[in-house]
């Protein structure tokens, strides 16, 4: 009986293999090309502000800036004031070295606010000839102007005005009042707009 089962088993296996080979011929499908998406708008966000290029009115927004719906940053206007007050010896336009740090600080301030200009107002005490004092006050302002230029400030941003011995703040006739009136003064107001930053999950708290 065993010898009869073995040939039958082999016959069945051969039959199954033949049918499997015949079935593979029918497993053929028509090739479909991958569809290409037609992108109408530019969905790229070059400045990474969360607003796509297609509707970004400010395409170069600084990183971390708080923006509006048009992709434009929010700016906060700041204002700073710098004063210059330099005193001179009697009948002299030489700048005392003690005031050179003031001039350097003013030069740095003018560089930080490049759209500003400065008016140097020179004064003289009520000692001596009025016409002479007028020229002396102008010369003092010119010396401060030269010092600012030497610190990198353009000549076009500096104006000079000499008041001589007029418009004085100290009206006394004593030596202290005269000393306070031998001066060059200036007040500069600088305006600047800084970007308001937006909090994100990547912000770090300063420790």
Automatic annotation (TrEMBL):
InterPro entries: Bact_OuterMem_StrucFunc, OMP_bac, OmpA-like, OmpA-like_sf
Signal peptide range in chain numbering: 1-20
Keywords assigned by UniProt, alphabetized: Cell outer membrane, Membrane, Signal
Positions of the OmpA-like domain: 75-192
CDD domains: OmpA_C-like
Subcellular location, record wording: Cell outer membrane
Gene3D superfamilies: OmpA-like domain
Pfam families (UniProt xref): OmpA (PF00691)
GO cellular component: cell outer membrane
Protein name: OmpA family protein
Organism in which the protein naturally occurs: Vibrio paucivorans
Species classification: Bacteria, Pseudomonadati, Pseudomonadota, Gammaproteobacteria, Vibrionales
């Amino acid at each position: 009986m065993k010898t009869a089962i073995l040939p039958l088993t082999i016959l069945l296996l051969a039959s199954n293999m033949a049918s499997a080979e015949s079935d593979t011929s029918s497993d053929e499908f028509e090739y479909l090309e991958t569809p290409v998406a037609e992108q109408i708008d530019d969905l790229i966000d070059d400045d990474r502000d969360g607003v796509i290029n297609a509707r970004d009115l400010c395409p170069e927004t600084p990183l971390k800036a708080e923006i509006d719906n048009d992709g434009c940053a929010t700016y906060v206007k700041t204002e700073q004031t710098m004063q210059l007050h330099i005193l001179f010896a009697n009948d002299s336009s030489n700048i005392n070295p003690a005031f050179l740090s003031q001039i350097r600080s003013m030069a740095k301030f003018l560089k930080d606010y490049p759209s500003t200009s400065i008016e140097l107002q020179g004064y003289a005490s009520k000692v001596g000839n009025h016409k002479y004092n007028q020229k002396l006050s102008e010369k003092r302002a010119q010396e401060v102007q030269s010092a600012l230029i030497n610190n990198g400030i353009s000549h076009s941003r500096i104006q000079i005005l000499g008041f001589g011995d007029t418009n004085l703040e100290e009206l006394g006739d004593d030596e202290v009042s005269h000393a306070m009136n031998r001066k060059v003064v200036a007040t500069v107001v600088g305006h600047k707009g800084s970007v308001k930053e937006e909090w994100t999950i990547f912000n770090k708290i300063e420790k």
